[in-house]
Amino acid sequence: MAWLPGQRITAQRLRDNHPRPISYDAITSNSSATTTTEIVALTSTPVTYRTGRAYRISLKCAVQTSAAADRVTVRLRKLNSTGAVYVEIPHVVIPATTPANQLAESSVLASNDTGADISTALALTIVRNAGTGNVLITGSSAAFVGHILVEDYGPSSDFPNSRAIT
Known about the structure:
mainly beta, 1 helix, single chain
C-alpha cells in the first residue's frame, strides 16, 4: 500500500500494512462419516471481510477412510455445504491401508470488492468421489491440528486476479 505525502499515520493504517490473522478455528473432534453426500466438518466463527481488502483463506485437515484407496474432495465454502466455494482440493487420494490419514492443505487469495463489508462464516466440507469407504475429517491431536485460517493480506488492488468474496 502506498503512503502519500502528508498522509496521517493511524493505528488502522499501520495495521493494514502487513498480513495478519483475523480468524482461526481448529478441528477438535472427528467429523461425521459420509460417502457421497457433502457434509460440514467444521464451521468457522463469522468473519467480516472489509470492502477493498484481500484475504488469504486457508484450510488444513487430515482425511480418513474405512476402506483402502478412497478419493475425497475437501472444500471451504461460504456458510454451509451449498455456499460459494472459496478453496477446493479435489480428489485427495487416501493410501491403500486402513485406517489411513491423508493431509489436505490449500489456500487462496480472495478479495471483497462489492462496495460493502461482508460478514459470514466458512464451512469446511468433505465428500467421497470414488471408493467404497466412509470418509471423515479427523480431529486434532498433539501431532496434528486441522484448521481454517483467514488472514487480512492487504488492499485488494494489490491482488487484481484474486477470487471474489461475494
